[in-house]
Amino acid sequence: MLYKSELEEILYVALKSGADFAEIFLEEINGTSITCEDNKTERITSGIEIGAGIRVVSGDTMGYACTTDLSLISLKKTAEKAAAGIKKSPKNIKIDLIPAVPIQVSHVTRRPNEVGIEEKVAVVHTLNKVARSYGDKVKQVMARYADSNQSVTIANSNGVYVEDNRIRTRYFVNVIAAKDNILQTGLEAPGGTLGFELTEKYQPEKIARIATERALLMLDAPHAPAGKMTVVMSHEAGGTMVHEACGHALEADFIMKGTSVFAGRVGEKVASEFVTVVDDGTYVGNYGYYNFDDEGTPAQKNILIENGILKGFLSNRYTAEKLGLKPSGNGRRESFRSKPIPRMTNTFIAPGTHSPQEIIASIKNGLYVKSMGGGEVNVVNGDFVFEVSEGYLIKNGKIKHPVRGAMLTGNGPKVLQIIDLVGDDLGFHTGVCGKYDHAPVSTGQPTIRIPEVVVGGRV
C-alpha cells in the first residue's frame, strides 16, 4: 500500500510529540456475506474496505486515530491527531524498518474472491432446502455464508515491518423445530482459514442434516433431570467452557487490572494434573490462525496451563511491557478502527490418553454433552451457565436416550481442578469472540470427564 520510506515518515510525525512508541496498522479487506431466511435470499453484501489506524504510546498514555484516506498527507495528519494528547520534548528519533520475510498462504486452494457469487448463493440455498426437506416440524431455517480476504501491513518505531494475508471462509445453518409448543434448535457452523474448499471439507448437505436432526431429536426427548451429576463433554462440544470460563481470565489485560482469578498465580497448581490448556495462533487452518498478530508479533503456540500448573498469560505489546512479559502474539483488533488488545486465537484443552469409550464406560449415572448452546459467563470469577443443545443420559457405562433442557452451572477454574479423565480425541468449533469488539477464534477440547457439575433440568 505504502512504501517503506513513507511509513517511516508517518512514524516520525507521530514520534515528534515526544512519544515512546508509534505504530501504523494498514488494512485492506474484501469479502462477501449471503443470508437466506424464509425460503429466500434476504441479503447479499460484498465490497472492499481500506483504512489505517495509528497508535501512539507515552508511558501510560495512549492515543489512537484512524482514517480511510491513505494518502501520505492524510496519514501524517492522522498521526498528529493520535499524538495530540502527548506534549513532551522529542527524543533522538531514529526509525529503521526491517521488512519481515513474506509468508505465502499456500493452504488456500480456492480463493473466495475468485469464486462466482452463484456458487456462494448455492451454499445457503442447499442448507435451506435440505433442512426444510424434513417436514412441517421444521419451522424456521437461517443459513449464512461469509468469506473475507484481509491484507494487513504493520510497522512501528521499534523497526517492525510485516505483511500478512488472512483468508477466512465460514457458513452456518440454524434450524428451529417445533412440536406441541416445544421449540428446539440445531446449529452447525464450520469455518476456517481456508478458501471455498471449505464446502468440500464440510459438505453443506451433511451439515444441514446434522443441524436439523439434532433439533428434531430434541423435540421428542424427555426433560433432563436436575441436580449434581457426573458430566462427560464430547469433543464435538467444542471448547466453549475453556474459552469463556477460563481463557478470558488468562488474558493479560484482565491480569494487569487485577480482575482475574489467575492474577499473581504463575507457577501454582490451578487445574487438574490431567489438564493442559493451549492457545495456538500457528494452528494452520483453524479460524484463529495467522502468521503475525495485529501488532506484527509472530504467532506462537502458548502453553497457558501445563499438567495443571499455570505457566503464563496471553498478551499484546502494551500489557507485556507493563507486566514484564514477552509478547505472546495475541494482540488483536477487529479492524483498523480498533486498538489491539489481548485476545485468544485457537484455544483448547490438549488431548490425553483415554479413549472416549473408556470414559463413558467408567460412569454409572451421568450426562453426556454432545453439543453446547449459548450461555453466560462472569469473566472476573469464571462462574458460568451453559445450555446443552444435545445431551444424553449415561446409565451403567452406556449412552442412553436424549434429554432436553439441560443447563450446566458452575465455575470454570473449579471445573478445571476436578477434571479427572481426558480423551485422546480433539475437536474444534469455529466462532467469533465478542470481547469489546469481534475477532475470529476456534475453541476445542477432547472428551473430558467432570465428576460433579450442577445440572439444571426438571426434578
Polypeptide structure, described:
This protein is α+β, with helices and mostly antiparallel strands. It has two domains: 4-219, PmbA/TldD fold; 227-456, no CATH class. 20% of the residues lie in helices and 40% in strands. The chain contains ten helices and 23 strands. It has helices at residues 4-15, 72-82, 117-132, 198-201, 204-219, 240-247, 252-257, 317-323, 356-361, 412-418, and strands at residues 21-37, 40-58, 61-67, 98-99, 138-156, 160-179, 182-188, 191-192, 227-233, 277-280, 301-306, 309-310, 331-332, 341-342, 346-349, 365-377, 383-395, 398-403, 407-411, 421-422, 427-433, 439-445, 448-456. Strands 1, 2, 3, 4, 5, 6, 7 and 8 form an eight-stranded mixed sheet that branches. A six-stranded mixed sheet has the order 12-11-10-15-22-21, covered by helices on one side. A five-stranded mixed barrel has the order 9-16-17-19-23. A hairpin with a 2-residue loop joins β17 (383-395) and β18 (398-403). The longest helix is centred in the N-terminal third of the chain and has 16 residues, at 117-132. The protein starts with a helix and ends with a strand. The mean pLDDT is 94.
